[in-house]
């Protein structure tokens, strides 16, 4: 009843719609309270009108889209309808969950925020029927997927799109909060984990693209499921304290061309630690900013600052190999080593 007349365009005849209008007009405002009922109207025409609309919703090819038309942005923005109506939506879905089909639960999963919580004020449950486990989600969504599915978020920086999409995917898969999803992925800037997801949520609410974002996550999930199953969490754990071994670094350096310019050579140990971060990003599909600092220098702020600076420099040169032929020769060697590492870790 709370969806009428918004549900009317889904499809019913004019006489049946008028019968529903008359039924609600009789009951609305009784005892100064809005009419709420889950029972069928006694009037046969009003009952037929509601059943016809219900049938067309439930037999829709895309049930999620059909439901979103009834409770779209207001369940995210808390605007457009009084807050009490938002609560009615959530309470009714939650109350009748056990009577819903799995298809209906999955479709309603992103329409009603409290539909999958453990209780009042509780954490989110994992989304129904996702199929994608959290460890199979890369911490930094591959650029090709982001460009293909998230370009409508042009107001959000590309890096933030990729990072945020991975966090939202993990929350779908494991439940809990966005902060916990970020920690699971190793995204851990102190005090900043929630900032970018809040920024994205505000943008989705203001632009009315919340449903587009959920549909993009659906498509990304399907593409990840269609690809090879990769345990990114295992890779992150295996490489959490790893650095490129000195002997392997020297072996890589021996394959590089002779440096003819006066530029400082890259053979020192600081560069070895910096290129370790690059290999880590390739092996784990992680973000450069969250590459783990080598444990023997992490406690020292001065050494950590030097490592961070060297890491930024090396990543910059590896991104501009057209102007840095020496790094152009180094880059495929590092990527080959990353591929070797992933094969060793995945076989364990």
Query: Could you report the average pLDDT, rounded to the nearest whole number?
Result: 79
Radius of gyration: 27 Å
Gap from first CA to last CA: 56 Å
DSSP E strands, number: 0
Number of domains: 3
What percentage of residues falls in helices of 4 or more residues?
55-70%
What is the element string, with H for helices and E for strands? HHHHHHHHHHHHHHHH
Q: Which overall shape is indicated by the principal axes computed on the Cα atoms?
A: elongated
What structural category arises from helix and sheet content? Answer: mainly alpha
Largest sheet: none
Task: Give start-end ranges of low-pLDDT stretches.
Answer: 72-85
* Oligomer designation: single chain
Number of helical stretches of at least 4 residues: 16
Strand content: under 5%
Description:
The chain contains 16 helices and no strands. The protein has helices at residues 14-27, 44-58, 63-68, 74-77, 83-95, 102-108, 143-149, 158-174, 178-184, 193-207, 210-226, 232-238, 246-253, 269-284, 301-319, 325-347. The protein is mainly α and 348 residues long. Helix 8 packs across helix 9.
Quick synopsis:
The chain is mostly helical.
Provide tags for this entry.
348 residues, mainly alpha, 3 domains, elongated
Question: What is the secondary structure topology, with strand pairs?
Answer:
Elements lengths: L13 H14 L16 H15 L4 H6 L5 H4 L5 H13 L6 H7 L34 H7 L8 H17 L3 H7 L8 H15 L2 H17 L5 H7 L7 H8 L15 H16 L16 H19 L5 H23 L1
Helix pairs in contact: 1-2, 8-9, 14-15, 14-16
